[in-house]
Write a structure and sequence with these properties.
alpha/beta, five-stranded parallel beta sheet, 2 helices, globular
Length: 102
C-alpha cells in the first residue's frame, strides 16, 4: 500500500507520494492542496506531515487532519512533526495559550 508525504517541498521521502501546493522544483510527485487531497478514501497506510501543519491556521489545520484521516486506511498512521511539539501539547491541555496575530 502507498504512503503520502504532505508538504514535501524540497524534502521528498523515498517510497512516498510526495505532494506540495507549489511545484516550483521537480522534488515533488504531484502538485496538490493538502486541504483537498485528490485521492480516494482509504488509499494510504501512512500520511506524513513534517513541518507542514504549522503553516495553516486553526480551521485549515482541522481540515488538513480531516483530509488525512479520510485518505488513511482504518488503522493507518498519521505522523505529524511540528517545530515545538511540547508547546502545542501544553496549549492543547490548557497549560499555556497560543497567541495568533491577525
Amino acid at each position: 500500500m502507498a504512503k503520502l508525504n504532505l508538504g514535501a517541498g524540497e524534502h521528498p521521502l523515498p517510497y512516498y507520494v510526495n505532494i506540495d501546493i507549489a511545484r516550483e522544483r521537480s522534488y515533488i510527485d504531484l502538485e496538490a492542496d493538502a486541504l483537498k487531497l485528490p485521492f480516494r478514501d482509504n488509499t494510504f497506510i501512512e500520511v506524513n506531515c513534517s513541518h507542514c501543519l504549522e503553516h495553516f491556521d486553526w480551521n485549515e489545520g482541522q481540515a488538513l487532519i480531516a483530509e488525512a484521516r479520510r485518505v488513511l486506511v482504518p488503522g493507518g498512521i498519521f505522523a505529524v512533526t511540528v517545530p515545538d511539539f511540547r508547546f502545542m501539547v501544553d496549549a492543547y491541555l490548557g497549560r499555556t495559550s497560543i497567541l495568533i496575530e491577525a
